[in-house]
Predict the structure.
Amino acid sequence: MNNLKENLNNVRARVGSACKKAGRNPSGIVILAVSKRHPVERIRALHDLGQVCFGENYVQEALAKMDQLRENSIEWHFIGPLQSNKTADVARHFQWVQSADRIKILNRLSKQRPASLPDLNICLQVNIDREPQKAGAMPEEVMDLATAAHALPGLRLRGLMTIPMAASVQHDPSGSYRQMQSLYRELIQSGLELDTLSMGMSGDLEAAIMNGSTMVRVGTDLFGQRPE
Ligand SMILES: *Cc1c(COP(=O)(O)O)cnc(C)c1O
């Protein structure tokens, strides 16, 4: 698990065979490398192997890493819980936010996105399994939020993101992924031009790709176990 090149090839191969099974083109799936708690040296090494998109969960940690990796052309995605007092930093430094889940956060990101930068790419996070402790909008809130996000200056709504309930004997995430795919299709049918359905992680990217994922977020299977 310490060989980044081997890990990257394995993840790419898994995406490839899942696409084959689903009758999809692998060029339609973005691999996002989730680098939370992994050191900048590992990020730089993975970037040198051709990985472009990286996801971070904690604002302070991410800003420190960006500063050290300035000369690398990395596309940074914010995927962690987002509090109002952190939106300004996120709006200034990231290219994507995948964890927007309420109107207050969307309004702040819109106001705080510098006019000199391209629009901030947005995915709305959906709490598809209605877990009380989890971030994300409820499925029935998504249409209104998407309409609002679409209208805000400085933002470009790209799609939806979810972290389903952990897989267990009682719960197969495929059902959650299927519901996400219908929600995503409903938004597109309503006239929104979306291209991103961010779902699937190390353990279940195949199930997500079978159900329409266009972006898998992989930490452990690329970098190995996260340091404590
Ligand atoms: C940590 C994290 C991941 C990656 O999880 P792995 O199981 O390590 O692949 C994906 N998405 C989000 C939102 C995360 O916080």
About this structure: The first strand starts at residue 30 and ends at 34. The chain has a mean pLDDT of 97. DSSP finds nine helices and eight strands in the chain.
